[in-house]
Design brief:
Residues 1-20 are annotated as: Disordered. This protein is mostly helical. It has helices at residues 34-41, 46-62.
Length: 63
């Protein structure tokens, strides 16, 4: 549902939905060299692979 300006109203049911068990709502920022940033962005599926690696680190640390 949109208002007269075309903006979504609060509580609308349109737009993006996820098929993940938990929605990705939190951001984490890290500092990289510009070269590392570009190299990372060139890795196929880098965001999902990084999320998986973070889970490995968390699980490894918890054992």
């Amino acid at each position: 549902m949109r208002n007269e300006l075309g903006h979504f109203k609060k509580g609308h049911n349109e737009g993006f939905t996820t098929d993940r068990p938990k929605a990705l709502k939190s951001l984490v920022g890290i500092r990289l060299t510009p070269e590392d940033k570009e190299a990372l962005k060139n890795v196929p599926n880098w965001q999902e692979r990084l999320r998986e690696y973070i889970q490995l680190l968390i699980n490894e640390d918890g054992e």
